[in-house]
Model the fold of this input.
Amino acid sequence: MTEEEWVDDSPVVRPYAITGGRTRPSSEAFDLLALVGVTGEPVPRDGRLGPEHLRLLGLVGESRPVVEIVSESGLPIGVVRVLLSDLLACGLILVRPPRPGGRAAQESLLREVLRGLQAL
Done:
């Protein structure tokens, strides 16, 4: 007899079980800063999508960066990327790459914060 692990009154599901054993997404579009948005297409009822897919679809909303979706889902980043690639393949989400200037703006903000901290 095996003993199941439970967390918060729910059985623990291993990440490989959620992704069907897959460890790599079918698309390389999921940079942490890429924006993901829903297309509004109806969700297929053929059993291809599990409850985790639907949960991620609910977290996506209008448009959010992958990093926020990962943070709110509580799932490992690799699992989220695989599940998002499934949603992309079903035509349920769109992915836009991060803006090229986005990182430079973030770097300048971090430098300002560092200068402010050093001035203290």
Q: What stands out?
A: The first strand starts at residue 6 and ends at 7. The CA atoms of residues 4 and 11 lie 7 Å apart.
